[in-house]
# Entry
Amino acid sequence: MTAMIREEDNNLKNNLYKNKVIKSNLYNNKIIENKHKKIFKNLFYPLNNKIDENVLAKLLDEYEKPKRYLFLADLNHQGGQAHIFKIFDYLNGSVCVCKQFSDIDDFNNEEKILSLIEKGINDKYFAPKHPNLLKFYGSNKKNIFIGKEQIPSIRFEYFKSKDLHETVEYYNGLSEKRSLKYFKQILNGIKFLHSLKIAHKDIKLENILINRDHIIKIIDFGLSIDMSKGEEYCYNNSGSPLYCSPEIAFSEKHDPFKADLWSLGILLYGMHSADFPYYEPSLYDKDYLEFISGNFKYPNNFSPVIAKIVKSLCNIDPNLRISIDQTIELINNYFNQK
# Structure
């Protein structure tokens, strides 16, 4: 009996995906017969990506419409000039995320960065994807795939998760061990970007995703910069103010990779304390002046190990900031001593 079901499953799959083109069989009435519903469900959704019955019913209702993408949900996440949707891709039978852009320049920059990352993963990482970066599936400048609007969009893997800001708020700060465990994954992701001569430029809690398995993914490359042409400094002072290094806050030319190091230090501080060391990066903020001078007093319950890392990453002199490799070494030493 099992062999018969497997053979029927394979036959249906072959009909649906011959030469990677969706054939008319997908829209044949037989697909919605009860005996095929289980096969249809298993075909499109493997065990690690199950679908509930309501979504399945929606898929079956849409079978007559010869389009590649099916709208599943509005993820209610708007960042800058973009909007995020969850969609289903009929062609490869997977759920993915579609990020719509209302500004073509924002789209062009993020598409360029994601393409460079994808190429770098293939050339340097020798794997289908980096464990701490979402896989890029492609883009389209003319069609949104959903509705009638002509809006550029990019598509990438769906990663069921929350952003790190939500997690930190829920726990009112993460423990020393958990903070360092997550931070090491973030460091590995940023280190890979830097190896491709890409500076993220917008490292913050909201741009870090985490799932139930404690896997970290870095997102949002809208402000990222490609420095592969040999530039030493940049003059783009964009970013999230509380995470910006002093050289960005005061509109100076800067090394964007070293600016990322400062942002990483502020990120780690926020992960552990659910707070920021200062109210704003301003010469009128007393806490900020103490922080950049190195005389900042950390809270009594603050981890000494994390305080050391934050202080080393957030040196006002960019050339004296600890490197990512040195930071990873400190974290490894911490866990080796446990």
Summary: Confidence is low (pLDDT under 50) at residues 1-48.
